[in-house]
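Q: How would the structure tokens look for this protein?
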Amino acid sequence: MTTKNVPELSEVQKTELSELFGECVNLDKRERRYYNHDIGALPRLSRK
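A: Here is the predicted structure in token form.
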């Protein structure tokens, strides 16, 4: 399984995700590839 189809996150996106979810966020490209089908809209409570 390749990660070439996984888009890169900008530094701003990485920072915002880290601020929202702390240690629970995983920015590893391989992990994002494995679980990209398992995403949805963020609930209102977690949005800025």
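Residues 11-39 form one domain.

The mean pLDDT is 81.

Upvote if useful.
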